[in-house]
Design goal:
- By secondary structure, this protein is an alpha/beta fold.
- The protein is built from 8 helices and 6 strands; from the N terminus they run ααβαβααββαβαβα.
- Helix 1 (about 5-10) packs antiparallel against helix 6 (about 135-150).
- The protein starts with a helix and ends in an 18-residue tail after the last helix.
Length: about 230
């Protein structure tokens, strides 16, 4: 099964076409929108539906120049590692034996192993956080999560923070594993994110269900996109 088949009817709906029209109009008016049009769906392009093992939900894309490239929490090589991702790396270093904190924040290698790095909102205006939160993206990503819930089993959903946890209503916890904690943001990471051990719990669950675990170590070399 492919994302295209699952989401075709959703993408044909008026609300979805309205999102794309709004983005095109804003770009035509000179507004910088991140990520670029060809990177809006990077998460779905890098993580095929058949290979999907884990969903890590973010909120909306980074709104600084050169940061967002279509994967939640991830930035391209050469871009400063954002605070939330730095905290994720700190947790990994204490949770996964042998994990070495990398010098960059490109999480492409996770995506290619079946980790869907999905933001709940897929675009943002430069310097204006949550500026596209009301466009309709939430409805689209609700549909993505509902399709995963319906057509897959033994997927790990990682919901950090209240915003991501709202998506939990679409997930059947009897057929999937749902992990929740505070968000890794510096504002909340000490309220339950640090010490959550979610990365090792993901692999324990995958192994228990005879699914290949995730290699969380980030290669220092430039990852190829496909």
């Amino acid at each position: 099964m492919h994302w295209h088949e699952l989401l075709k009817s959703e993408q044909e709906q008026e609300y979805f076409q309205s999102i794309l029209t709004t983005i095109a109009n804003e770009r035509a008016q000179g507004v910088n929108i991140f990520p670029s049009d060809d990177e809006l769906y990077t998460a779905l392009e890098l993580t095929s539906f058949d290979d999907l093992k884990v969903v890590i939900l973010g909120q909306d894309p980074y709104h600084g120049p050169g940061q967002a490239h279509g994967l939640s929490f991830s930035v391209k090589q050469g871009v400063k590692i954002p605070p939330s991702l730095a905290n994720m790396y700190k947790e990994l270093a204490t949770d996964i034996e042998g994990f070495t904190i990398p010098t960059h924040g490109n999480l492409t290698s996770w995506a290619k192993q079946g980790v869907l790095l999905l933001n709940t909102v897929l675009s943002v205006q430069q310097g204006n956080a949550h500026s596209h939160a009301k466009l309709g993206w939430e409805r689209y990503t609700d549909a993505i999560i509902a399709k995963i819930n319906e057509h897959k089993s033994n997927v790990v959903f990682v919901l950090w923070g209240a915003h991501a946890q709202k998506k939990g209503r679409f997930i059947d916890s009897t057929k999937h594993l749902v992990l929740t904690s505070a968000h890794p943001s510096p504002l909340s990471s000490y309220r339950g994110f640090f010490g959550c051990q979610h990365f090792s719990k993901i692999n324990q669950y995958l192994i228990a269900n005879k699914i290949k675990p995730i290699d969380w170590q980030i290669d220092e070399q430039q990852p190829s996109l496909f």
